[in-house]
Amino acid sequence: MTTKQSSRIKSLAVMSMLTALAVAADFFLRIPNIGGFLTYEPKDVILTIGAFIFNPIAGVLMSLVVCLIEMVTVSSTGFIGFLMNFLASAMFVGVSSVIYYRKKTMLRAIIGLVSGSLAMVAVMLLWNYIMTPIYMGVPREIVVNMMPTLLLPFNAIKAGLNAALVLLLYKGVVTALRKSSLVPVRASNDSDNNRKVNTMITLIVSALAVATLILVLLIFAKII
Questions:
Q1: pTM confidence score
Q2: Please, are residues 183 and 174 in contact by the beta-carbon 8 Å criterion?
Q3: Are 12 and 58 in contact (CB under 8 A)?
Q4: Residue 150: which residues within 8 A CB-CB, separation 6 or more?
Q5: Using CA atoms, how far apart are residues 140 and 114, in angstroms rounded to an integer?
Q6: Which domains are delineated in the chain?
Q7: What is the rounded distance in angstroms from the CA atom of residue 55 to the CA atom of residue 28?
Q8: What is the enclosing helix (H) or strand (E) of 29?
Q9: Is 143 exposed, middle or buried, given 0-12, 13-18 or 19+ CB atoms closer than 10 A?
Q10: d(C-alpha 184, C-alpha 93), whole Å
Q11: CA–CA gap between residue 150 and residue 116 (Å, rounded)
Q12: pLDDT tens across 150-208, in order?
């Protein structure tokens, strides 16, 4: 087995472990029924740490796996709940890590986490406006009235708490993994990898933004 193959196997093992920890956090540390239908769980903390260690694409893929497992196990909100959970995680994890991954410094981590928090809050407000009336079977005006009193505070507190926990835990986690030789020191050719990762994340975020705008236009056109 070559060194490169061994490194890939170790990376997959660590990503699997972090995914399992995120699922466990989703199962055992969740706070359900906030405002009647919202749920807080700290899975994004673990997923963001994974994205910081590896790359944003890995973080988004781990988010997808965790949200799928949640949908078929502890969640009762079906596909709509899965979609909302994945959008929230993908925006927070993806935006935070793509900024940090370009240059791994504390300042970049803070900027990334703040940007990821703002992106998540903005996108979730839009998608709550789109999907919550469908899920709850209520007029859209009721959801609009919920935004300043429930949806905005909930998403802002969730994002802020997750960001703070990432800053608190990341250094200790990555140091422990490096001492265990599970995570290698970054290679000198990471700049090329960074450009590829940034391009992929840009495409994913752009696709989500386009989908959001199309749905908003359809709502205003009273098609849905």
A1: 0.82
A2: yes
A3: no
A4: 35, 38
A5: 29
A6: 3-220 (1.10.1760.20)
A7: 27
A8: none
A9: buried
A10: 21
A11: 20
A12: 899 899 999 999 999 999 899 889 889 888 888 766 544 455 555 565 556 556 665 66
pLDDT tens-digit map of 9-41: 888 999 999 999 999 999 998 888 787 778 888
Q: Looking up tokens 């995120």, which residue turns up? A: 22
Neighbours of 17 (CB within 10 A): 14
Determine contact, residues 108/102, Cβ cutoff 8 Å: yes
Does the structure show a pLDDT above 50 at 224?
no
Q: How many CB atoms lie within 10 A of CB 30?
A: 15
Q: Cα(103)–Cα(197) distance, rounded to whole angstroms?
A: 13
**Cα(139)–Cα(144) distance, rounded to whole angstroms?**
9
DSSP code, position 30:
-
